[in-house]
Amino acid sequence: EILLILLGLAALFGIGYLIVYLVSKHKQKVKAEQLALEKGVELSELERAKEIKRKEKEAYVPEDQLKAFRIKRTTLKVITYIFLILVALFILIPFYWMVITSFKSAEEIAATRPSLIPNKITFEAYRNIFRIEVNPYNGTLRRGVPFLYMFGNTILVGFFTTIFTVISVVFSAFAFSRLRFKGSDLLFTILLSTMMVPGEVFIITNYGTVSRLGWVGAPLNAETGRIVGNYLAMILPFIGSVFYTFYLRQTFKQVPDELYYAAKVDGVGDFKYLFKVMIPIAKPTIITITILSLMGSWNAYIWPNLVTDFQNYKLWLVSNGLSNAFRSTIELSGPNNVLNQQMAGSLIITLPLLIIFFALKKHIMRGVVRGGTKG
Q1: Backbone phi, then psi, for 250, in 5-degree steps?
Q2: What's the predicted TM-score (pTM) here?
């Protein structure tokens, strides 16, 4: 257990170091591009000029000191890359294990000695999870994974949650960054203090609220009302975010106040200034918030489990649907016989997030850099 804790702490430290390293490299690149743009030269010419200056400085350094400096710099780079490679392996090995397990047969998984390479690649798990079997008496799922319902529900919930979140965050961040009203700083401080409260506390209060509104635990004969209530319970409690408000507020505050006052002199209203000036400037940050909000809806697990009926597979999301789908299958076949199916299902619901991240990683990094620097 101590070893697992140490490995977990090392992984967290490594991930943090990797994020800081990537953000710092991106900041350096952005600053270099801005400097090249200000001087009206190509970025390659600017880098070439820096290299010439560096060589000129090295020409005045004694040979022994220069050699020691180069050895120290090379050693530091080697240690850094080795550490990053180990962290990357620590992160990628579970993903690799998930992929190869999904292509193994149930008999090979049951073997006493696990293998890093499948003896025989089979698509048995993927065929089985797409083979849906429903109990004709009560309509519950017996076998398979209803990916069509899971992806549809997740996209629906994620879409509305993200839209309402972005709207509320944009207006609240603009109000706290530009509109001067009495008690604004105190109110914003109170909102920030709620970030110190554990999320489990809000789960209890949110569940009590949606229960009193009748969105959870509706009568079984009120099928339509129960379905609508479940969707409302999964969307409305999360249409606001204090962290995203703080994050976007920092970006809005980078815009000079003189620009706002000049717009007011020209007769531009607050709404027009927000949509014509602030939102275009903060576009990378807003895109980042949109992506993170969508990913949060995709990964939500505890809350959908609380507010939805696990027996009604038509309301499952990708996060809780996978575990719910294998409850009866494990009871019928045993845990070892469905492990490859669980890994295949996990891979299927993970791929869309990976595609979204790699397709939009530039926007995410740009938003992080813009939100964390002053300009």
Answers
A1: -65, -35
A2: 0.70
pLDDT of residue 217: 61
* 228 & 313 share domain: yes
User: In this model, does residue 278 exceed pLDDT 60?
Assistant: yes
* Partners of residue 134 on adjacent β-strands: 141
Is 23 strand, coil or helix?
Answer: helix
Domain span including residue 187: 126-372
Q: Which of 206, 235, 230, 239 is nearest to 307 (CA)?
A: 230
Q: Tokens 């920030």 correspond to what residue?
A: 192
pLDDT higher at 61 or 31: 31
Q: CA 273 → CA 179, 259, 367, distances in Å?
A: 12, 10, 21
Distance, first Cα to last Cα, the chain: 46
Amino acid identity for residue 9 in this structure: L
Report CA torsion sign: 306, 307, 311, 313: negative
Q: Which tokens belong to 163?
A: 């839209």
Q: What is the pLDDT of residue 173?
A: 92
How far apart CA 141 and CA 149 sit, in angstroms, is 12
Number of structural domains the chain divides into: 2
Task: Please tell me the distance from the alpha carbon of residue 98 to that of residue 342, in angstroms, as a whole number.
Answer: 9
**Alpha-carbon gap, residue 166 to 367, rounded angstroms:** 14
CATH of the domain at 325: 1.10.3720.10
